[in-house]
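Worked example 3. Consider a protein that binds adenosine monophosphate.
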Amino acid sequence: MIIIMLGAPGTGKGTVASILQEKLNIKHIATGDIFRKNIKEKTELGMLAEKYIIDGDLVPDDITIKVVEDRLNKPDIENGIILDGFPRTVRQAQELDIILQKKGKKVDRVINLVTPDEEIIERTINRRVCSNQECREVYNLLLKRPKIEGICDVCGSKLIKRKDDTEETVRTRLKTYFEQTSPLVEYYEKQGNLMTQQVSKSINKLGKDVAEDIVKILNNK
Ligand code: AMP
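Given these inputs, the predicted complex is written out as structure tokens:
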């Protein structure tokens, strides 16, 4: 099964995707994580991507599509994948369709997460992530605090704040989302595989609640 997580930054795509990865036994691939790993390792790709990420802009399509194409050529995706943070432009979506078509596959489900902007800003500036690339557990100082301050409950590594989780950058990322990524809602609506879910404390639904609902829907199919 090929699932895409769509939604503005901070809506909970990563949280939902990591729960789905476990429950459905499919691979969670996050382009943001791939870029951050490369930045940490100071690779050529990392150095190229860093300036766009810090400014809240998108990494250019040609670079991003190549990264995803290479990743999808690895054998561990045979059971299925959840793409988190890709595609983010119509061109990326079109190229993804072509890449999958060549493999005899297609996008099965697109999960579109929607959260009010002010809640997104509050959530992202309070987000902390595990610095261990293999773990990547996500915390929130308001909603999901670690048991020991600054330390990951799962693996004991240090928690860090992403450089692009400042209020100013998040506002730019939201603008980028509405200008370049939100047209994908219509793109996938036309393909007939879009499933929209509200993620908001105002309706008592956070990422983990939505993930449970999605698993039920997918298992009943
Ligand atoms: P994320 O972790 O998904 O919030 O991504 C962090 C940053 O990585 C984004 O703000 C972009 O700068 C970059 N990025 C991640 N995925 C993509 C993509 N599909 N296209 C372009 N840039 C991306």
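Take a moment to read the result before moving on. The pocket of adenosine monophosphate is lined by residues 9, 31-32, 35, 52-53, 57-59, 64, 85-88, 92, 164, 173 (CB under 6 Å). The longest helix spans residues 167-181.
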